[in-house]
Every structure is written in C-alpha cells, then in structure tokens.
Give the backbone structure.
Amino acid sequence: MERRQQHFSRTGAIVDLASIRSNMESLVKAARSVNPDIGLLATVKADAYGHGACEVANALAGTACMYSVACIDEGIELRTAGGIKAPILILGPVFAGDDEDTFRYGLTQTVFTLERAVQLNENAAVYDAERKADPDDIKARAKAEGDKAGEIVALLRENEQKQKGGQNGSEDPGFNDGCAHVHIAVDTGMSRIGLTPDENGLAILRAICSMSNIRVDGIFTHFATADESDKSEAMKALDKFRRFRVMTEEAGIRIPIWHCANTASIIDGIGLEGFEMARAGIGLYGMYPSEEVQKENVLLTPALTWYAYITHVKKIEAGTSVSYGYRFTADRRMRIGTVCIGYADGYPRSLSLKGTEVLVNGRRCPILGRICMDQMMIDLSSFAEGEIFPGVPVILLGAAGQEKITAEELAGRYGTINYEITCNISRRVPRKYINR
C-alpha cells in the first residue's frame, strides 16, 4: 500500500534519534557498571511511547539485544514495516486464535498458565506440520472434501514457499525449529499477570518446559514500586524472583534469559546483578520514571518536540468570553491567538483552565478557556501588535530559547505521569525524524 502523504503544515512532532541512542548508551553504561555482561532489551510498545516504534527500533539496532511490544500487531509492524530481525517479545497475553501469526512473524509470546501453554503447543505442532506439507497434497485433500477455504490456504502456502517469505531470510522467522518461543511471566507482587513463584508455579513451569513444541527462552517479572524512593517492596519482589530462580535451577530447569529490571531499576542499580537482561523503557525517550529515582546516576535527554501553529490573531475587549462554556472571560483588552491543536491530536482537554502554558518565540503563553477537539486559544497580550501572526510556531512540548515545557510539567497539571503525555500524541500528528 502506498504510504499516505503527511502534512506538517498544521502540527508535527520532531523526534531526535541521536538523543534516543544517547539515552540507550547511558542506560547500558549504568546497567553494566553493576553487571558487565547484561544485555538491554528496548521497549517500543505503544508506538515507542509515541515516538515511532519502527524508527526507534532501527535507531537502536546493534545496541538492543531484543525488543518488546504489548501486542501482536505491534510486533508484526516491527517485522513488516520496520524490517526488524532481532527477537521481539510480546509482553501481554496472546489469544490462541492469533498463534499462527506469532509463528509466521517469529514473535516470542509471554505465557504463564498451563492451559494456555497446552493450546500453544498444539497450535505450534499443527502449524509446523502444515508448513512442511506439500501444498499439492493440501490442495487435493481440500478439493476432495469440497473445502474452498482449504484450497485457498494451500495456495497461500504454495506462495509462501515460492517466495521463501519471512523477514529473516527463512520461511518463518523464529520458527525454524518448529517450536513456539516463549518467555514465562512471574508475579512477584504486581498482581497483573504471571505464575506464582512457589512450588505450584514451579510445577507449571516444569510442565511447560516439557512440551515438545514450546521453547522457553526467558523468564521475567515486573516490579510495581521500583520507581519509589522506598525500595523495601521492590527488594521483596526481587528476593522472590531470585529464590524462584534457585528453585528452578535446583529442579534441573535451565532457562537462558532471566530479566526483571526496568528503567527505574537500571537507574537505581536494582535487579541487575546475576541476570542476563534488563528492559529499557521510558528512559530511552529521555524521561525519568518518577521524581524519586536517583536522576544523577543517568543523564537522559528528552527526544521529542511537539509543535503546532498560530492560525489566527485578534483583539478582544474586556467582558469577552473564550471557547466552550464561557469558562474564561477577559477582564481587560487582550490579544489572543488560535492554535491548530486539540484533544483529538492528543493534547488533553483536562489541561484546560489549569494555568497550562505553551511557548511562542521562547515566551510562555497561557491557554485560555477550554481546549477544543482541533483548536485552542492562547494569550498573546505580552507581544506587540504585528509581532505574532498566522504561521508562527507554538511549542507544546519541548524547548525554545531559555524556556521549556516538559512532559512532567504537563503531567503534573493533568494529574497523570509523563508516559501518558507522549503515548497519547495521536497518529494525526506526523512525526519527523532527525539524526538518523
């Protein structure tokens, strides 16, 4: 399909890939100061936290040992649009009906229940048999049974074999051994997904490892409180994970990759020693996971600048109200500007009426009234007449001159975290990449 033309005349986001590479280098350095042999996985789920998954993944090629996504479609996009050949881990559960696509695109699933593992093992065996079957035999059988859908499947298989599909130069990337590759999730206190790190969990793990069409490549947990200054709960979770590793190895089960550290853990040096991998997430994009981590340990640079443009400038008199609901009324003569950005672009409506500001020519300008779906109004009264006009850029997130608007600042006004600010920038906002 031909790529849709993107227009930057309304709004856009500039993503500095050099900053992302630099952030990765800082995180690698911090992690390897504790464990020289540890590898770093790059988390590019949610379109790389709004920065563009394919572009970010390619910028980190050769540095990241693996990538992680949240769902199968994100993984397929990395393989097809991004051409990524490295291992891709789907962090969330996958339904059985999607197994075939995980095999076809060589995606690693997360598994943590016996029931799901049984389904996956069976589906992998069927897929392996079908991909090895002669398309002519499948076609003949389908025709004899009057199975039109089966005939189509046979033709598709024939096509795949002719093209020798796959992004890794093989018919099915990651499925050459006829097995579904998985990482096991362990619940050490998040209460989200994962088997329990006890004898029951060990029995489930042993059963999964014994399945002929499943290969357990890794095992991981996720900390609920690693970004807090009080590390007591995080250390309890880490201790559970370490003890489960001992139990696993004493049971004769060998799993190549164990990982538990996220960005906060890397910054504060927790969950690195004795493990094969750590997961770099929010830090890749130049944002700290919280104000409670030891920021001085790792220098991070925000990678994204989000901008829009002034579309209209006018004067209003005292007593004139602005935007929906007339929640703002001028108490003096003012000069205001309309900006072509709104909540449909991902700029939260909840930032209305909270003193939120944007940057115009390096100067802070307050938002007036309610933010609309596609537009909002700002106070330009500090500028002289004729100084600001349609076409002047407005910085929503980023730096201009001596001033800057950070994701943390917006998150604080919105009542959320910096992650949500960049993740919510919609696809209607085109991304431009520099320093490839």
Summary: The chain has two domains: 17-290, 304-405.
